[in-house]
Automatic annotation (TrEMBL):
GO terms for molecular function: acyltransferase activity, transferring groups other than amino-acyl groups. Pfam families: Acyl_transf_3 (PF01757). GO terms for cellular component: membrane. Coiled coil: none annotated. The chain crosses the membrane at residues 28-49, 70-91, 122-139, 146-164, 170-192, 199-217, 229-250, 257-273, 293-315. It comes from the Bacteria. This is Peptidoglycan/LPS O-acetylase OafA/YrhL. InterPro entries: Acyl_transf_3_dom (IPR002656), Acyltransferase_3 (IPR050879). It comes from Catenuloplanes atrovinosus.
Amino acid sequence: MALYHYTTFWSPDGTHNPTHYLPEAGRVTVYGFLGVELFFMISGFVIGMSSWGKRLGDYAVSRVARLYPAYWACIAITLACTTLVPVRGGWVPVYDTFTWVDVGINLTMLQDPLGHPSVDNVYWTLWVELRFYLLWALVVGRGVTYRRAVLFCVAWMTASVLAVQLDHPAITMLTVPAYAGYFCAGILLYLVRRFGGSPLLWAMLAFTWLINLHSLSERVQLNPGWHVPLWPAVLVVTLCYLVLIAVALGKADRFDWRWLTVAGALTYPYYLLHQRLGYIVIRHGLVDAGIPLEVLVPATMALMLLPAWLVHRFVERRFGPMLRAALHRGLQELRRDRPEERIDGGTSTPAIPHRVPVGRR
């Protein structure tokens, strides 16, 4: 994804076409946008796994505590950097003028449905992710089971196909037809992992792959705006399916994947920070320092690991548990149906329900 943004999605010097500097590499890196599709498949797998056996409130708390602390920190970092060292002129696909209302709405992660610009373009995927969480909450609220997970995928895939034909904005917004197949594929792969493969699960996985070809053909034409062959994109998505199928079947269990824990922890803040901060480094490195793009791009990709690690180390690991604990306390109050009353300068006592005299109800 970072390679795609750095080499084909903008003009590094503000003048030339993105492929001016790296024409051969651009033919390959243009398919980096497919990192989003892979991310959604992994998300379906992980959410299916992590929500199993959880109550709805616990599921909501885990999602909020996981997403928001790093997101808030990355908004602050991005705004600070782009204000102090702005990148303007030429083909720069980012919005530069924000009001305080825009920033405040961004903190909710709901800027897309409310019609406000995102502080960073990459945030669009978060709204897609939130819609998946909301839809999956319908299953979590009843309790996640094999049957309910399968029926959810059937219902969502059916609705997403109908949404394409109906072409109604509200229905499209709710069903996310362009990406529903990837989330469902991830959920189905987790079912394979937990219960083993079956003709039903393999047939449904094949169906999601076929349906995804439709949205993939449209995505290729939108990224980056010139003709891009479809077959490499199909190959990449197919390889993603095959790799995750191998993981679901346990074929990768013999390998030591402990390093993936660290890599996975950095992925989220890295994604949130890499585009706009990377543009600053590349533009000034190329225009002001004359560093070749062949050096700047990999160096910038490596450099972005530092702020991502800082956010993970000092924000996610510190404030994530704090937010989770605070939300759990609020959740317990909801489950008790009343908070504790505070009396005598801050001491607390359980609220005493008001007794209504018989005959006066």
